[in-house]
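Human: My hope is that you can spare some time for a protein that puzzles me. I am handing you a single protein, as its sequence and its fold in token form. Could you go through the record with me and say what the backbone is doing? Take your time, and here it is.
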Amino acid sequence: MKLGAILIISLAIIISGCTGVKKPDVNFRTILQIENKEFKSGEKITYTTGLENVSSAPIKISHAIPLGYVEVFDMNNKIILHKPDMTFDSSIEETVKQKEINSYDVKNNSANMFFSLDKVQKYKVVATSVFTIHDTNGGNDKKAEVKSDPVIIEIKER
């Protein structure tokens, strides 16, 4: 009897599409690009960030300059670096078109940033975009933070 109830509940969950993981309702993806994956100790590591609208319609957003930040973690998830060190208070409004990887940072060449690391080891780099999505139908605006997929880099001896 218990086995039958478990099977029925499991089947209902599968049919409903419920996976137990809440999917974000933000229609954006943060892009982090680092060309190389291996660097020498102290070498300049250049990265580019962007925000991609993955929805089927343009979305109006506002954000500070820069649009977000990058964090570097060791492989034990201890934060090593947070870039940029300062955020400007200026607020930029823009409409990001569907399927467009674009933002004020990219258009104005402020998305190309860099850092360097000295300790020889592997690191995980993650970019986070911080912005407000404007409801053009008179509803409430929604604050959003969208993280990129992590990029693993390795620092080697000089």
